[in-house]
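// run 5 | inverse folding | seed 20
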């Protein structure tokens, strides 16, 4: 396993565990364990920790290279961004629930016409219909949050500006969507690294994996801070510095590590 990848994944896992512990303690003190934001954040934190554990296991046990883990990071990155958006937007948690319900109904509306999935589709439509009929304070159904990830990232940046975050701590929507999210999507669409025509750059996948993991961790922990801290800008500043050290140490290790073969075990 690349030393720089192991370092970043391990340190991000430690960070998630620390914030998860503080978050759960705050929930217990406020008797808020069963509030919808608490439940959704807990699910996202668990998913992030399990994703990192799975990547470390895959890399250690099989000798796989970083490209195999990009598909695992993608849903962690996207889910973290959506949770961060929900933690900052007005009615964000309700809109996040409406988004997931609408995605399920979109599938069910197709699946209900297929005999093998008709019954399952019917149950999905019935259960999600209750979510989609929930009303906002004005008596209208909640709008689902934006479906497109680039729009989600741009609106997070707008939240950052509104919250008075310094520029270095804000979301970088164009860069992160183009140079992180889109690259994480490639293997999920069958864009396999060894099918490239021309020179191979194995370190690229390692860099994208590290960036995706750091940014996903940054997003989900920022969501925890938005929900559970009194001084959000100061907490984000401290978090940014810590993740910045993790990233820089990873870059240093990457510069010292010879590039492995894509097919080596």
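// decoded
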């Amino acid at each position: 396993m690349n030393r720089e990848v192991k370092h970043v994944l391990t340190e991000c896992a430690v960070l998630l565990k620390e914030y998860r512990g503080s978050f759960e303690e705050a929930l217990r003190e406020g008797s808020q364990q069963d509030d919808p934001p608490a439940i959704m954040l807990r699910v996202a934190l668990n998913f992030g920790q399990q994703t990192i554990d799975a990547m470390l296991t895959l890399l250690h046990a099989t000798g796989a290279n970083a490209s195999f883990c990009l598909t695992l990071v993608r849903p962690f990155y996207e889910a973290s961004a959506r949770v961060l958006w929900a933690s900052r937007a007005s009615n964000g948690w309700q809109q996040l629930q409406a988004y997931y319900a609408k995605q399920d109904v979109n599938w069910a509306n197709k699946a209900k016409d297929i005999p093998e999935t008709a019954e399952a589709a019917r149950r999905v439509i019935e259960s999600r219909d209750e979510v989609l009929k929930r009303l906002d304070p004005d008596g209208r159904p909640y709008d689902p949050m934006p479906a497109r990830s680039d729009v989600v990232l741009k609106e997070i940046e707008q939240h950052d500006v509104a919250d008075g975050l310094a520029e270095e701590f804000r979301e970088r929507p164009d860069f992160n969507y183009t140079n992180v999210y889109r690259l994480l999507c490639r293997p999920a669409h069958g864009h396999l690294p060894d099918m490239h025509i021309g020179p191979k750059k194995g370190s690229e996948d390692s860099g994208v994996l590290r960036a995706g993991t750091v940014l996903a961790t940054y997003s989900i922990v920022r969501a925890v801070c938005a929900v559970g801290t009194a001084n959000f800008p100061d907490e984000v500043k401290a978090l940014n510095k810590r993740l910045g050290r993790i990233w820089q140490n990873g870059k240093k290790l990457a510069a010292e590590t010879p590039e492995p073969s894509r097919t080596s075990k």
